[in-house]
Amino acid sequence: MLTLVPTPIGNLEDITVRALNALKSASVILCEDTRVTKRLLKLLDERFFLNLTSKKLISFYEHNQDKFLKNVTPSFFDQEVVYVSDAGMPAISDPGAKLILYAQKHNIPYTVLPGASAFVTAYAGSGFLEKEFCFFGFLPKKGVAREKAVLEVLENRKNSILYEAPHRLLELIEFIAKNDPKRELFLAKELTKRFERFFKGEAKELYEKLKNEEIKGEWVVIVKGSNLNKKELLLTQEEILNLSLPKKEKAKLLSKLGERSTKEWYNFLSQEDQKG
After folding, report:
1. Which of 24, 43, 141, 209 has its CA 20 to 30 A from that of 147?
2. DSSP state of 10
3. Nearest-angstrom CA–CA distance, 254 and 268
4. Interatomic CA distance for residues 26 and 213, integer angstroms
5. What is the pLDDT of residues 194-206, one digit of tens each?
6. Could you report the per-residue pLDDT of 15-60, keeping only the tens digit for each?
7. How many Å apart are CA 115 and CA 13, to the nearest integer?
8. What is the architecture, at CATH level 2, of domain 2-115?
9. What CATH number should be reported for the domain whose range is 119-223?
10. 248 versus 6: which is more confidently predicted?
11. Shortest CA distance to 26 belongs to which of 73, 58, 65?
12. In angstroms, rounded to a whole number, what is the distance separating the alpha carbons of residues 243 and 112?
C-alpha cells in the first residue's frame, strides 16, 4: 500500500491524526530529503511520543525518482510505504506524482491524505472573491523562459498563484509593477510560521513598500486576473521590441497590437537583425 502524507508547512500542530497514524504504521518512508524528514520525525516524537525516529527512510526526490521507479518492483509496495515531501502536499510542487502513476500502472493500492497546502491556505486568506484560479507553482528562475512565464501570468484572465523564493521576490514584483503598476497582488510570507505576514495592494505600491525591507522566508504570490480584452496588451510596441525574447515569440506579441501579422513582424525583426 502506498500512502502520500502531507506534512506541516510551518506549524507542527498542523499535522493531522491520520498523518501521524500513517507515519506510525509505515514500514518504510520515502522522502524528498531524508535530513528534513529525520528532523520532522524527531520533533513529532518529542511532541506526540510515537517512536518514529527508528523508521527506515529512503530518498525519493526530483533527480533520482526515475531511477528508483525503474529499479523497484511492485512487490516493494506489499508493505506499508509512505511518501512525504519536505513540507505540504506531495505531488503539487514537490515529487510524488510519479509514484501515483507507478501505482496506477501496477494496480498498487494507494491513498492520498488531505492536509496542509500553501497555495490553498494563501488563496483562502487573500480576500479575492473569484472561485476560479490558476496555480503556476514556481516559475522558471531566469532568462527568456521566466519573462515569458510572467507575461503569461499577467495576461491570464483568472487569478494566478505562484510560489517565489525570497531572493527573486522583489525582481518579480518590480517586473509586474513596470508592466502593470495598478495590478492588484496578495503576498503571503512564511505561512503558519511565527513571522507570517500578509500584504495586499497594487504592484507599484507593494514594490515601494518592500524594496527597503529584508526579504526572507517562503512566499506565495497571488496576481489578480487581467481585466484587459484579448486584443489589448500590457506592453507597448517599444517595450516588446526591447524584450529578450526569440523572434518568433516577439512577433506573436507584436501582432496582438493589430498593425501587422505575426509573419510580417517576424520578417521585420529578421531584417533588423541583418542590419545589426
Report:
1. 209
2. S
3. 11
4. 44
5. 999 999 999 999 9
6. 999 999 999 999 999 999 999 999 999 999 999 988 899 999 999 9
7. 12
8. 3-Layer(aba) Sandwich (3.40)
9. 3.30.950.10
10. 6
11. 58
12. 43
